[in-house]
Amino acid sequence: MLQDVTVDELPQLADIIFIDVRSEKEYQEGTIPGAVNIPIFNNEERAKLGTIYTQKSLKKAMEMGLELASGKLPSLYKQVDDIAHKDSVLLFCWRGGMRSKSLAIILDLMGMSVFRLIGGYKAYRHSIVEYFARAEFPYHIVVLRGNTGTGKTELLKRAKTDGYPVIDLEGLSNNRGSVFGYIGLDSQPTQKQFEALLFQEISKYQDYPYLIMECESKRIGRVTIPTAMFRAMQEGTQILLYDSLERRVKRLVAEYTAIPEALCDLGPALEKLKKRLGKRSIDELLHLLGERKYEDFVHKLIVEYYDKLYGYPNKSSSNYEICIQNNCLEKSLESLKSYLDRFTLD
After folding, report:
1. Confidence (pLDDT) at 114
2. Which of 70, 258, 308, 314 has its CA at a distance of 20 to 30 angstroms from the CA of residue 341?
3. What are the angstrom distances between the C-alpha of 339 and each of 13, 39, 154, 192, 317?
4. Is 211 within 8 Å of 236 (Cβ atoms)?
5. Cα–Cα separations (whole angstroms), residue 291 to 263, 276, 284, 295
6. Average pLDDT over residues 242-261
């Protein structure tokens, strides 16, 4: 069975495998989250077809496309069948045109349950751009603020596990948002893919009146938070998490020593701070790192860099809706959940 669906119908599809039949380069620039790439034309073939279309004609390009694709159809079918087993598949290309249509027809003839996205990835991308371009973001945002090492990420992960509408911006952007933000992580997604992942995550919480997330700058590494959402973060409810310097040091030491490559990457990352901290301070940090005096290293980094950079209070402050001292994760989680439950009850 072959059926065309719109972008608006995607959330109603269950137990379906998304297959992006565009070239590898197109896929890497942005795709529907979770989609598998099975390109009908690879990067070189797509470029060649584009040249023929530009220099000769659409008909010539289509003839060349038919010639290139025809020999691949058995292999393409096998790849899809190996992935899908008995599940339905949804195919999409750039505009929902010949690439997805040709393979969809073959899969349908082979008895597979096939859906095809009307308008292709272009329509999907347009829906995301339109969503984030709205003047008012459709959720109230609760922002968890606090200096580095206070345990914000760990607290929010626990809240998310317990069913609260947490948006993990660092996880989605694959960056912690500081000069050391990339350490121990894979490469970041493109801006298009970040927005797709963000949209998908937000869509899980349509029944909630609010979202909660950690405070971030508008730019996280090389991606940026959509303007309306970032504005809602600034205007939303602000919660402060704080803790003692000693416990903050221990958290950061535990975090970075748990990542095998982190200690090797810290040195080069420090060089980026030379202008801000000065050569003497950087040399001292590198010495502490070389001597494996990790607690002294992190203590100095927090006092001389992180706390001056972010400048949050290290004690309760009337500038925040509530303040939580994170000296016990379970108690902090209880305090946070007790406050968040008010939004559901109101």
Report:
1. 96
2. 314
3. 35, 49, 18, 34, 17
4. no
5. 12, 23, 11, 11
6. 89
CA–CA gap between residue 92 and residue 334 (Å, rounded): 45
The pLDDT of residue 344 is above 80: no
- Specify whether 64 is located in the same domain as 145: no
Choose, from 93, 264, 323, 328, the residue flagged as catalytic.
93
49 shares its domain with 193: no
What is residue 64's DSSP assignment? H
CB atoms within 10 A of CB 259: 13
219 strand-pairing partners: 224
Residues 238 and 197 occupy one common structural domain: yes
Span between the terminal Cα atoms of the chain, in Å: 47
Show which of 81, 96, 130 is a domain's final residue: 130
48: domain CATH number? 3.40.250.10
Which of 82, 112, 130 finishes a domain?
130
pLDDT in tens, 2-15: 999 999 999 989 88
Element (H, E) at 37: strand 36-37
Residue 195 CA to residue 303 CA, distance in Å, equals: 34
- Chain segment 181-216, per-residue pLDDT in tens: 555 556 889 999 999 999 999 999 999 999 999 999
Chain centre to alpha carbon of residue 132: 15
- pLDDT reported for residue 70: 80
Question: What's the pLDDT tens digit per position in 260-274?
Answer: 666 677 777 788 888
Active site residue 215: no
Strands annotated E in 93-167: 114-117, 140-145
* pTM for this entry: 0.89
pLDDT at position 164 is 97
- The candidate with the shortest Cα–Cα distance to 111, out of 139, 133, 86, is 86
Residues 160 and 282 in one domain: yes
Q: Based on the domain organization, do 151 and 14 belong to the same domain? A: no
